[in-house]
Amino acid sequence: MSSEPRFEKLRNECRSLITESSLLNSDDRVLLMEIVDSYNVAKVSELSFVASETTNIETNGYSIEFADNGPYRIVKKIRPSQGYVGFALDADGAFLMRSNHVFHQPYKLVKALPTLMRIRSDALEGASFPLGSGVVYTERWPDSYGHLVDEMFTTAAAKDEVAELMDYLPLVDFPVSSGLTGPPPLANVAKMAQAIFQGGSLNLSAVKGSSLSVDRLALIRNRTSDTCFHRFPTEICERVVKMSENTQDLAQQSDSREYVFLTRGESADSGRRIPALQAMIEEAGSRGFRVMNPETSSLPHLVRSISSCKGLVCSWGGALTNAAFLKPDTRVGILKLPAYQETLKIFGNMIEEHALSTRVMEVDEQEDNLHEFQQLLDWVVGAQGQSASSGES
């Protein structure tokens, strides 16, 4: 693990939390200190409140844990804004490590300890809905549109490609109130689930009680190092595109513009606001780009517009996952704010799967960035004829 000052600060914070915690026994306290100091994720499974991994198979690019000694409880969301979703526990109340990303990120794990212990207590004491069969889902990340969609795509593709998952029911999790007719973007998640699984899935949020009880459980690992992470397999994308083409939306069928600029809404997070966004919208519009906001566009309209366009400009984050619906060899210009620390490698599986050409524009929060944005638009439409590799990040 890096020795950068920010990581050392995180380690020190975690050391203090471990020392002061009354939720840990002495063995867990010593082990967690070792995990934080070495960032040895493998040792997380040795903690007393984490279940040992059961049968594991590696096939077709997936790493899948099969737990068939139930009952297992899958906990519903406690508060969507916290992102603590999808936790699974065995009959003794130990967490299955692959049920949630927090178990392979030691710093987050330490900070989440109070919440984890409350989740465990509530799950063991609360009413559980017995399903009586096996379910499969993909290791849960924070509760955002991009991750929700990525996890549904991964689960659906694994169901298609791994014979051992044939009789497992896919589990999804999004607010029931969104429905198919509610406002975007939540309604888009519901429509995406319908298109991907064609009605053959279970929504955890619709389950009565505080948790779902199952006899068998399959958990698909979803780490940034896995080839399934953010891959958005072509065959699953085709299902969604077909759904969008079969949806009547006459109000938007007359727009024939060939390039799309996906904007982002006014984020509550100031670190994710694009400076001079309105000027960029006007510039893109004057260049013949169709300007769309994924947060207010219906899924059929969004997918149809992207799947038929010749070039795309969008911001880094959840909006970029929409590039999975592009035709191969399409150019994608990406606006990246300083708040995003990761590199383009995080979307590498999707870029390779769909053979996309990409260029990243690093947004300066102190400037209007308009000149750089104009150059990005030029590259997307091919005006300068530059190689995409010259601007990759």
At a glance:
The protein has eleven helices and 17 strands. With 393 residues, the protein is an alpha/beta fold.
Summary tags:
Rossmann fold, about 400 residues, 2 domains, 17 strands, disordered C terminus, alpha/beta
Describe the SSE topology.
Elements: H1 5-20, H2 26-38, E1 50-51, E2 55-59, E3 62-67, E4 72-75, E5 88-89, E6 95-96, H3 106-111, H4 113-125, E7 128-130, E8 134-138, H5 145-161, E9 169-172, H6 186-197, E10 202-203, E11 211-214, E12 216-220, H7 234-245, E13 259-262, H8 277-286, E14 289-292, H9 299-307, E15 311-315, E16 331-336, H10 348-353, E17 357-362, H11 370-381
What characterizes the major β-sheet?
A: 6 strands, mixed
Strand arrangement, largest sheet? 2-3-12-8-9-10
Backbone shape: globular
Ends distance: 22 Å
Secondary structure: number of strands: 17
| Low-confidence runs of at least 5 consecutive residues | 383-393
Number of helices: 11
Strand content: 15-25%
Computed over alpha carbons, the radius of gyration is 22 Å
Question: Into how many domains do the coordinates divide?
Answer: 2
Helical percentage: 25-40%
Mean pLDDT: 86
Structural class: alpha/beta
Order of helices and strands: HHEEEEEEHHEEHEHEEEHEHEHEEHEH
